[in-house]
Specification:
There is one protein chain. The protein is α/β, with parallel strands linked by helices. The chain has one domain: 3-Layer(aba) Sandwich (Rossmann fold). It has 5 helices and 7 strands. Strand 3, helix 3 and strand 4 form a beta-alpha-beta unit. Helix 1 packs across helix 5. The longest helix is centred in the last third of the chain and has 29 residues. The two termini are about 30 Å apart.
């Protein structure tokens, strides 16, 4: 449930989009939530799969371009309220086809709707900030990493967040998320390396956590400077 808070309390909505609670994505979301709490935020943790969110668009939530005051479904309005209550949104998800998973895309489609997130002279989400933490199996030295960052920024920051009036949007791409390194060669062959284990694996995931923590720190610090 979303938190009840006073007007002077900063709130962060942490949205996790993964079907497994034991995934690295869920782990990263929990750590980000703890980090935000330590920074003084009240955290509303939204696990889309655990809460049973249906990402499929339906007639009730389909935008009516002639009526920006359309009343959408009760479920959608509950999620709208959670966004309105948040000063900061942090979305944590695995990268699928250089984009977000269907459940996160459907959440945006149904909740970030016409008349709410866009379609007004004064956007209701103006002034809010969002961090997209994207976990990718690509290795840091994979040439696709640079284009992946660019595609995600264009789609998530330019195409969604700034279009909806957010004052700040940052995409934190977390590479090397797989225990078995993967890359595609020039001929389209998938090359899968040996799985890391033991001390090497512990070091890999410790470095992953460090990089994730740094992205959250930089995002929060940037917000303090902006104020």
């Amino acid at each position: 449930m979303p938190p009840q808070h006073s007007s002077d309390t900063r709130t962060a909505l942490v949205v996790v989009a993964h079907h497994r609670s034991d995934s690295l994505t869920a782990h990263t979301a929990r750590r980000a939530a703890a980090q935000l709490e330590a920074a003084g935020y009240r955290v509303d943790l939204l696990d889309l799969h655990a809460e049973g969110f249906d990402p499929r668009m339906n007639v009730e939530d389909q935008p009516d371009w002639g009526n920006r005051e359309k009343t959408y479904s009760d479920e959608t309005h509950r999620h709208m309220r959670r966004i309105l209550d948040a000063d900061v949104v942090v979305a944590v998800f695995p990268v699928y086809w250089q984009s977000v998973p269907a459940v996160l895309k459907g959440w945006i489609d149904r909740v970030w709707n016409y008349g709410f997130a866009y379609g007004r002279s004064k956007p209701r989400l103006a002034g809010k900030r969002i961090l997209w933490l994207a976990l990718a199996g690509a290795t840091a030295d994979d040439p696709v990493a640079e284009s992946m960052q660019s595609v995600l920024e264009a789609n998530l920051s330019d195409g969604i967040a700034y279009y909806c009036g957010f004052s700040r949007s940052a995409v934190g791409l977390l590479l090397d998320a797989e225990e078995r390194p993967q890359r595609v060669d020039a001929e389209g062959n998938l090359l899968v390396g040996e799985a890391v284990a033991g001390a090497e694996r512990e070091a890999q995931y410790a470095d992953f956590d460090r990089r994730a923590r740094k992205l959250v720190e930089e995002f929060l610090a940037d917000g303090l400077v902006a104020v």
